[in-house]
Write a structure and sequence with these properties.
heterodimer; A: two-stranded antiparallel sheet; 2 strands; 3% strand; B: Helix Hairpins; 3 helices
């Protein structure tokens, strides 16, 4: 299999090529089959590699293969090659597995759309680029995938391009991402040059990892910060998160695949991939953790006051990505990747469920016009319920294991801190509240839709509900690959990922345990950290249950309470509902600032300097011409006088020279 | 035998003639007179050549004089033809009134 790892990205590429070349005349069914089969084949290949990995000893679980010499220039040589290790295999499984389910779902969801074929072409291209990003063995190839998914994101957000808002959202996503990509690219260059200074000219990720010890501390800090700028853009963290809520203009399966399950996690993947560099830069790790936890909290609070079902989910995604960055920032890479995986399951499911709700409600997005869907769409109801329990972190569901792992590491890791844990735990409670607010207002209570819409409410076709059910099973069971030691598990995913993330961080964590135990527990044998872990776990579960209970009180028991609350705190509510006016601030500072700078440059640099130079030259020539033409009188005799005068001067000069 | 004239005097004479010609070219209005002044300047130059030729016992100067006289004759013919045409067009040969080349 090692020789054929390039097959994984090849299948979606084939699907893309076949559909874009021959899809024009083919029937919708055929296009859908090609696209879905391409994904399924890629999924099977990933499973095959995964299976093969399980047979091998942990140290042998790296397949790397170059297939083409892409750039050869002086010291630089970049190959197009693929690298599969436990980290990229997990990413491949998530991307192709969830991607396949979403492809199948889209067949039903997009069935009546005139852009059906175009949609699947873009989706296949997206999956190809995403696989390139996670399997590429060099930074430039990773960057190609990185930009490729950005392009597909742009194309798919603006899929209904005749709608102004969709086209604008696409542009916004692309431009905001460019800011991050700039950081990524500068980081790549800087890394290349810094390693080159030590005689190691390479962009291969494995080589970079092996030679990372050559780099000096400040250089690593700067490089990792630059890479983190890229991650902030792609994974929608403060301050570059503004594009993700707007990206909900795209079709719902796109929001599910790109803006929840896969593309937005690329930043997390990238940090995990470069974990060797990040582990060398504690300052950067601290920045990552702080940005992550702040984003998680901030986005969750916005989620409280949104009425658009997809916007709530979008802010929830930003918030969950924040959790993943917290995990990266405290050095708990495996926990972050674990959460990435479970999040792909339950958030993908939530978005698909939201799509199913929209399908039932004739495209309605506003929570205020929903309610009472429980009876009419039972499958959507139950799957959505499972996903909500998972994201809220109820014990037994996948989100519980991954989120709790992150929170525990946020507290116990040498890079962690108590306040990060506290903010994270509060955010987890907020998550539970707004998710169940969403859940209760959609499925419980009286239906607030108009009679016409109410009449049409129906469960989605099976092609849509079966992916929902599979994802629900995954949301339920996906967490059991990472049951912590405390609960009798052996944290299989962390062990599986250990070859990538190394044992260095674990050793450090173990060292820190002593400090923690000595600081927090009095004395005695081991088991104190276990007790502490259990206490924190119970605390976070209690916070989550409190959030759910509050949501139940507000939105089921006493539906008048939210209105009373908003009436009481009008200013606060408006502030949060308008997303803290961050968009307005950015519009004022960056958009209008740019426009104003442009107007200023138009006036000064262009109007005065450039046009001044050009017009000034013209005016000078014209004016001197006006003066000089007076000399040309047309009288022959004056010319003759000029000649004579000139001759006298020349002769006079020639005579005068020898005299002095 | 004729008294030999010192070349210095010849040069002074030719200088005077040349200046008269040049001033005539500049200040006279009638183009025919201007033309005559040009001839005067040419002949002043001829005089220098002849005098120098005699003083240096070289024939080079004398040869130049023949060339200049030939060219002057040709030039006079062409110039006169132009003046005739100008007169037919403008009914004047005043240099003051010919300023079509004015800038």
């Amino acid at each position: 299999m090692a020789d054929y790892i390039w097959l994984i990205p090849l299948f979606p590429a084939l699907g893309f090529i076949i559909n874009s070349s021959f899809g024009g005349r083919a029937s919708k069914t055929l296009v859908a089959w090609v696209a879905c089969l391409a994904l399924f084949a890629a999924f099977l290949s990933s499973v095959a590699v995964f299976y093969e990995f399980l047979q091998l000893p942990a140290s042998a679980r790296v397949f790397e293969r170059d297939i083409y010499n892409w750039i050869a220039s002086g010291e630089m040589s970049v190959n197009i090659g693929f690298r599969l290790d436990p980290l990229s295999v997990i990413m491949c499984l998530v991307v192709t597995g969830v991607g396949f389910l979403i492809h199948v779902y889209s067949v039903g969801y997009m069935h009546d759309d005139p852009g059906f074929k175009r949609f699947f072409i873009y989706l296949n291209l997206f999956v190809f680029m995403m696989l390139l990003l996670v399997t590429g063995n060099s930074l430039p190839l990773m960057f190609v995938g990185w930009e490729g998914v950005g392009l597909c994101s742009y194309l798919l957000i603006g899929f209904w391009y005749e709608k102004d808002s969709a086209a604008d959202a696409g542009k916004k996503a692309f431009i905001v991402n460019r800011v991050g990509d700039f950081g990524f690219l500068i980081g790549v260059f800087f890394l290349f040059v810094s390693l080159g200074a030590h005689g190691v000219w390479t962009m291969n990720i494995g080589e970079v990892g092996r030679n990372a010890h050559l780099l000096s501390g400040p250089a690593v800090t700067v490089i990792t910060l630059l890479f983190f700028v890229g991650a902030v853009g792609k994974s929608a963290q403060i301050p570059l998160y503004v594009w993700l809520p707007d990206a909900m203009e795209g079709p719902t399966p796109v929001s599910s695949l790109i803006h929840a399950a896969t593309m937005v996690t690329a930043g997390v993947y990238m940090i995990a991939r470069l974990n060797i560099l990040y582990s060398m830069a504690p300052d950067t790790l601290y920045v990552v953790a702080v940005i992550g936890v702040l984003t998680a909290f901030f986005a969750a609070s916005i989620g409280f006051a949104q009425y658009d079902i997809k916007k709530v989910l979008a802010y929830s995604t930003i918030s969950q990505l924040g959790f993943m960055f917290v995990a990266m920032g405290v050095g708990a890479y495996a926990a972050g990747i674990f959460h990435l995986m479970t999040h792909a399951f339950f958030k993908g499911l939530l978005f698909l469920g939201a799509g199913s709700v929209m399908h039932a409600m004739s495209g309605e997005l506003d929570l205020r016009n929903m309610g009472g869907l429980r009876k009419k769409t039972p499958i959507t109801y139950w799957t959505f319920f499972i996903a909500c329990l998972a994201i809220a972190g109820i014990p037994g569901f996948s989100g519980f294991f991954s989120k709790d792992e992150i929170l525990w590491k946020a507290f116990s890791s040498p890079h962690g801190d108590l306040w990060i844990w506290l903010l994270g735990a509060v955010t987890a409670g907020m998550t539970a509240f707004y998710m169940f607010r969403l859940f209760f207002s959609t499925f419980h209570g009286e239906c607030r839709a108009s009679e016409e819409v109410k009449h049409h409410i129906h469960e989605s076709p099976r092609v849509m509900t079966i992916p929902l059910m599979i994802l629900a099973v995954l949301s339920l069971a996906g967490g059991y690959v990472g049951v912590p030691h405390l609960l009798g598990g052996d944290n299989a995913i962390e062990q599986f990922l250990a070859p990538v993330f190394g044992h260095a961080t674990q050793a450090k964590t173990a060292l820190h345990f002593d400090i923690v135990t000595s600081a927090w527990a009095s004395s005695g044998a081991g088991g104190h950290e276990a007790a502490l872990e259990l206490a924190l776990m119970v605390a976070s579960v209690l916070i989550a249950l409190l959030g759910i209970a509050l949501a139940y009180l507000y939105y089921v028991k006493n539906p008048a309470l939210p209105d009373r609350f908003t009436a009481r705190f009008v200013g606060l509510f408006r502030w949060v509902h308008s997303k803290y006016f961050v968009d307005e601030l950015y519009d004022f500072v960056f958009v209008r600032g740019t426009l104003r700078a442009g107007a200023f440059l138009l006036k000064v640099a262009d109007g005065w300097i450039i046009e001044g130079l050009v017009n000034g030259t013209a005016a000078l020539v014209k004016r001197s011409g006006d003066r000089l033409r007076k000399l040309e009188t047309g009288y022959v005799q004056e010319y003759a006088f000029g000649i004579i005068l000139g001759a006298i001067i020349v002769v006079g000069y020639l005579i005068a020279i020898p005299m002095f | 035998m004729l008294q030999e004239i010192p070349p210095g005097l010849c040069f002074i004479l030719s200088g005077i003639l040349f200046m008269i010609g040049a001033i005539g070219v500049i200040i006279r209005r009638n183009v025919i007179v201007v033309f005559m002044c040009i001839e005067l300047m040419l002949n002043a130059v001829n005089l220098v050549f002849i005098a120098a030729s005699g003083a240096l016992s070289s024939m080079d100067g004398s040869v130049f004089v023949f060339f200049i006289m030939t060219v002057a004759a040709v030039e006079a013919a062409v110039g006169m033809a132009i003046f005739v045409m100008v007169f037919r067009l403008y009914h004047t040969i005043n240099a003051d009134e010919m300023n079509l080349l004015k800038g």
